[in-house]
Amino acid sequence: MDWDDLRVFLAVARAESLSGAGRVLKCDAATVGRRIARLEEGLGAKFFLKSPHGYALTDAGARLLPHAEAAEAATAAAEEALSGEAGQLTGQLRIGAPDGCANYLLPQVCAAICDAHPGLEIQLIALPRLFNLSKREADMAIAVSRPTAGRLTVQKLADYQLHLAADRDYLAAHPPITSRADLRGHRMIGYIPDMIFDKELDYLAETGAEAVGLASNSVSVQMQMVRAGAGLGIVHDFAIPFCPGVSRVLPDEIGLRRTFWLLRHADDRRSERLGRLAEALGQGLRAEIARLEAAAAVQ
After folding, report:
1. What does pTM read for this prediction?
2. Is residue 182 classed exposed, middle or buried when 0-12, 13-18 and 19+ CB atoms within 10 A define those classes?
3. Interval 197-246: pLDDT, tens
4. Per the CATH hierarchy, to which homologous superfamily does domain 159-257 belong?
């Protein structure tokens, strides 16, 4: 058994299809199928069952998986030790993040990290959902709540604040808001209730509103609705400086504090490279959040 065979096995296990694995491996599905057949024949075991939903691991495949992941981690560690100049981070890094963080924070933070490490390539996946690190959708992911299950390494990155906000044109066209009671009759902007993928994103109770008049599963779209003068919404303070004319409403009465968490696969916990990247990411996020929240407080 060699590492290249295990690499093909891992790709199919994570993609759950030959074509998906082929895209990762940059080869056609037929080649992937032949490689898996050769591996199964050589080891005398069936590792996958094909179904209408894709390729699922058999019991034998499930037993092989942790060993293949350990081989992957060892290979990556060896490459880290032998590549790049002293102190420099190189290679490709894929980060999954909720769209608010990805839109308003990570572009600046990742640019600074790449400036410090020219040989590093960062890919940013912005999706309003949780990421599956076991399937290697990303090397690391940022979450808005601390997971309680899964083989993960969890690290606190930074706290951040959210407040009720509105555009100045909207506020000028409606009666003054001096208390929670004044919010009655205003259109609220927020998440689509049945598409809230994390309990930390359920902000509605903070306003006392009974329903959302305009909704989106994307926090960035919600922010643009607020900016367009469509109503009031709970928004990230760090997003407010990007939207001239938007300001906080009842900041002393309605405010939330949340936390960003960095998640990595447990097998990566010994990776010096990912550890240094995680440290740089945390430092950059904390600094950028502090800068933007200070600007939001006076906007």
Report:
1. 0.72
2. middle
3. 788 888 877 777 778 999 999 999 999 999 999 999 999 999 999 999 99
4. Periplasmic binding protein-like II (3.40.190.10)
